[in-house]
Amino acid sequence: MSAPAMKTxxxxxxxxxxxxxxxxxxxxxxxxxxxxxxIVGIIxxxxxxKSTLAHSxxxxxxxxxxxxxxxxxxxxxxxxSAGRGTLTALRGPAAAMIFQNPMTAFSPIHTIGxxxxxLLWRDRDQATGxxxxxxxxxxxxxxxxxxxxxxxxxxxxxSGGMLQRVAIAxxxxxxxxxxxxxxxxxxxxxTMEAQILHLMRTLRDTAGVAIxxxxxxLGVIAEICDRVAVMYAGRIVEEGTVETIxxxxxxxxxxxxxxxxxxxxxxxARRLPVIAGEVPRPGGTGCDFAGRCLFCEERCxxxxxxxxxxxxxxxxxxxxxxxxx
Amino acid sequence: MTLFLLRxxxxxxxxxxxxAILLFSMMHMIPGDPTVxxxxxxxxxxxxxxxxxxxxxxxxxxxxLSMFLGRLAQGDLGQDVWSRRPVLTMILEVLPYTxxxxxASFVWAVALGVLLGCVAVVHHGKxxxxxxxxxxxxxxxxxxxxxxxxxxxxxAVWLNWLPAIGAGAPGDIAAQARALIxxxxxxxxxxxxxxxxLVRAAMxxxxxxxxxxxxxxxxxxxxxxxxxxxxKQALLAILSxxxxxxxxxxxxxxxxxxxxxxxGLGKMTYDAVMSRNYPLVMGTVLVTSGLYxxxxxxxxxxxxxxxxxxxxxx
Lengths: 325, 314
What we know:
The complex is a heterodimer.
Chain A: H1 2-6, E1 11-20, E2 24-34, E3 39-43, H2 50-57, E4 65-68, E5 71-74, E6 77-78, H3 84-90, E7 95-98, H4 112-119, H5 128-141, H6 147-150, H7 160-174, E8 178-182, H8 190-207, E9 210-215, H9 218-224, E10 227-232, E11 235-241, H10 242-247, H11 252-259, H12 298-302, E12 308-309, E13 317-318, H13 321-324
Parallel strand pairs in A: 3-9, 3-10, 7-8, 8-9
Antiparallel strand pairs in A: 1-2, 1-4, 1-5, 5-6, 10-11, 11-13, 12-13
Helix pairs in contact in A: 5-7, 7-8
Chain B: H1 2-29, H2 34-39, H3 45-55, H4 61-73, H5 87-122, H6 127-141, H7 144-158, H8 173-207, H9 210-217, H10 222-251, H11 254-259, H12 265-274, H13 278-306, H14 308-313
Helix pairs in contact in B: 1-13, 5-6, 5-8, 5-10, 6-8, 7-8, 8-10, 10-13, 12-13
Membrane topology (chain B): Multi-pass membrane protein
Subcellular location (chain B): Cell membrane
InterPro entries (chain B): BPD_transp_1_N, MetI-like, MetI-like_sf
């Protein structure tokens, strides 16, 4: 993965924070880079700020949310100063998004063809027939049988897996530089999940699309990602290549997360392992994970751990006092 | 679709049958001798006897009921007590006035209501939304006869633009249309507020749907999302409520009919009740129920036609 490391990032976030209603922080000081052709995964529990982070990339946060930070660059455009017009221009060509629940991602009372045509609103000069052909080609590319017939179909007539393919086809039509996938396979069964992941990898390999994938499913992340960021209480607590994170996790939270992965639990275990307690509100003193950490020390409670780079591997970072010593 | 309509029509027939039986029972539950109630305390025993015979009141109750229903099935709603004219003929004479007034009021209510509702949603949370909310509630709160009187004063008396009373001469469509403007406005205005609140609520719900987020994520313009997508969903959601409203408009225009001296079903029902003209009361109430039920069937059919999920399930 040395080639993508050289290119200018599609997404470059530095010290980005998102706060709801001026009081409740959801994302705290996140640094994240995604380069062309790279698949980056974000894992974490519910409430860790993954989805807020994903939505902030396209400016899709609710009105009550406010975004601050040092630097936020999407496809060469400064997002911190971007107005509505700039955001509209970026949505689609710069970054497209696939959502968690494909069953509700399309209007139930409009046909698939009509909705996909709507997304091609930028190509005003193009004839309807030409748009139709492009849509049919995209639907065929994502492996939808009878794509012409599907144009007249309504979302409720298709399965969840088929609809998620339609969503990917929509993203394909845009040729975005970055594809954001927020829990793209959570609502699907296992075989569909494998097919969707395969499709996303193909998208990266053929079109060079950068992909940011949000999931709490470790298997999905291990399967598809090059690099992984672990989020906890609004912060990225560990980041590295997928091999490093899965083989030598440095942060106790990452390790605890792996311990809870059902596929990794030894058969015959009497009780399922859990991480005791719940995600605290971000922004306390000390380490956010201290209250639930098995290795908690005095300094963890009083002093927030810095973002440190592992001596052996410059691409492996973590936010833990112990991993530095 | 045909089966669906047949089922609904059968259900409607059952409802109307129940209404007819209830009306019939009501006649018999009125305290005292119905002939005295109808003819007044100063009627002679001979008059009462003749009336009893004419109305079939001297027969057993169940026989009366079956006769009543049998006549209904043939479309015979009985005779007016005073004029001896067939009730059905009298109703059919005024029905066109009532239906045109209801339709015109409905056009006001839906056109203005949907417009205001959409504007409120586009300005959601800002002063425009707040102002429209206030105006809508005011429209709902002001009784239609007050609107009727004031619009009469302004447009008919002061400005002399529109006729004050009557429904226009028969056959003169232009005059009839002019005579329709003020009453329909007065009746429709209360519904404008109601419809705008409904549209606003349904649209806000629609705008929170996931597919709206998808459209936004592809940079589709907000006005397009509002008018092309959310509005269709919102209208589908409120269609049945609007249909009930239309049913109400068909029957609840008594004030407008009195203020503007228009013939109509509402005024006829009112007059029939005041003069204890029971066959006419039963006739108008039955026809009103029939219109109401027809509105419901139509609303269901339109919903089914517009909503692909319902359409395919039929």
